[in-house]
């Protein structure tokens, strides 16, 4: 099931996307979105009679984390190597504020403080219920679904600050979308990033150093996870700079594509 958050020009609402999506994540022109009575994280899946063509609505970030986005650094060996570091012995966690979240088609604002902003395409996990100390064999009980993330990073600030808060925390530095896929085997999915149509990242979740069950068990051993919290699972190698005017598309097999343009912050 694909759960989206959308607007027709009125207040945002949730819906279920129906119809076919091709191998590149492009919806068929006949795709529809059926309205839901409220946020499915809290009221479940309750369909209404409201229905729209998907092409006639604007998709928003499919989840608004009430609490946090947890990023995982260097979770692909090739990316750890390109960053000049060793593979971590345990998951390397950092926090992105929920104010960094934007949706598909929203601009990524290039901050005045940086001159080297990078894309990082990733599989993202959306938590479905409050949980703590989740054993690996029970993680499916707490997963709401999966979406696509772009862990935008001001690389120069990351290096100068040492810690990641400023480099990864700017408003608009966490695009999510286009929807949440609730039924997906994520053990071997393509994760690709295109810059202005050119393929820059080409990985697979099979190469994750720490898989999704391991990540949820590890993160939840440190902090309580709340409904709507997001875990970014890490990015393949091939990260690189983007500049105002560029368009970044992140594709995750089985979910779709997330596209955002980079603009200057005035």
CATH fold category name of the largest domain? Fumarylacetoacetate hydrolase, domain 2
What string, H for helix and E for strand, traces the elements in order? Answer: EEEHEEEHEEEEEEEHHEEEHEEEE
Tell me, what is the CATH class of the largest domain? Alpha Beta
Q: Portion of residues in helices?
A: 10-25%
Rg over CA atoms, rounded to whole Å, is 17 Å
- Outline type: globular
| Straight-line distance between termini | 39 Å
The domain tally reads 2
Unreliably modeled segments: none
Number of helices: 5
Give the CATH superfamily of the largest domain: Fumarylacetoacetase-like, C-terminal domain
Condensed summary:
This protein is mostly beta strands.
Give your account of this protein's structure:
This protein starts with a strand and ends with a strand. It is built from five helices and 20 strands. The longest helix has 11 residues, at 212-222. It is mainly beta and 266 residues long. It has two domains: 2-60, SH3 type barrels (Roll); 69-264, Fumarylacetoacetase-like, C-terminal domain (Fumarylacetoacetate hydrolase, domain 2, Alpha-Beta Complex). The radius of gyration is 17 Å and the shape is globular. Strands 1, 2, 3, 4, 5, 6, 7, 8, 11, 12, 14 and 17 form a twelve-stranded mixed β-sheet that branches. It has a five-stranded mixed β-sheet with strand order 9-20-19-15-16, with no helix packed on it. A three-stranded antiparallel β-sheet has the order 13-10-18. The mean pLDDT is 95.
Question: Which helices and strands, and how do they pair?
Answer:
Blueprint: E1 2-7, E2 13-18, E3 32-36, H1 40-43, E4 47-53, E5 58-60, E6 69-73, H2 77-82, E7 92-96, E8 101-102, E9 108-110, E10 117-119, E11 121-127, E12 143-150, E13 153-154, H3 155-161, H4 165-169, E14 174-181, E15 190-195, E16 198-204, H5 212-222, E17 230-232, E18 240-241, E19 247-252, E20 256-264
Parallel strand pairs: 6-17, 8-14, 9-20
Antiparallel strand pairs: 1-2, 1-5, 1-14, 2-3, 3-4, 6-7, 10-13, 10-18, 11-12, 11-17, 12-14, 15-16, 15-19, 19-20
């Amino acid at each position: 099931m694909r759960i989206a958050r959308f607007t027709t020009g009125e207040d945002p609402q949730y819906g279920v996307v129906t119809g076919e999506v091709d191998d590149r994540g492009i919806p068929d022109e006949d795709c529809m979105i059926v309205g839901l009575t409220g946020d499915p994280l809290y009221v479940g899946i309750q369909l209404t009679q409201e229905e729209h063509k998907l092409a006639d609505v604007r998709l928003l970030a499919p989840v608004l984390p009430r609490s946090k986005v947890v990023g995982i650094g260097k979770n692909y060996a090739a990316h750890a190597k390109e960053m000049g570091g060793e593979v971590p012995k345990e998951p390397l966690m950092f926090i992105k504020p929920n104010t960094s979240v934007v949706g598909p088609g929203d601009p990524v604002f290039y901050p005045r403080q940086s001159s080297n902003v990078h894309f990082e395409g990733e599989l993202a996990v959306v938590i479905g219920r409050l949980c703590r100390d989740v054993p690996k064999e029970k993680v499916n009980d707490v997963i709401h679904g999966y979406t696509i993330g772009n862990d935008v990073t001001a690389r120069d600030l990351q290096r100068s600050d040492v810690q990641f808060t400023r480099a990864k925390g700017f408003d608009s530095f966490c695009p999510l979308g286009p929807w949440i896929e609730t039924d997906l085997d994520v053990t071997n999915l393509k994760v690709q990033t295109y810059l202005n149509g050119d393929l820059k990242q080409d990985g697979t979740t099979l190469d994750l150093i720490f898989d999704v069950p391991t990540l949820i068990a590890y993160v939840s051993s440190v902090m309580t996870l709340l409904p709507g919290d997001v875990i970014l699972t890490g990015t393949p190698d091939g990260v690189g700079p983007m500049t105002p005017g560029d368009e970044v598309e992140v594709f995750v097999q089985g979910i779709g594509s997330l596209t955002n343009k980079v603009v200057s912050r005035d």
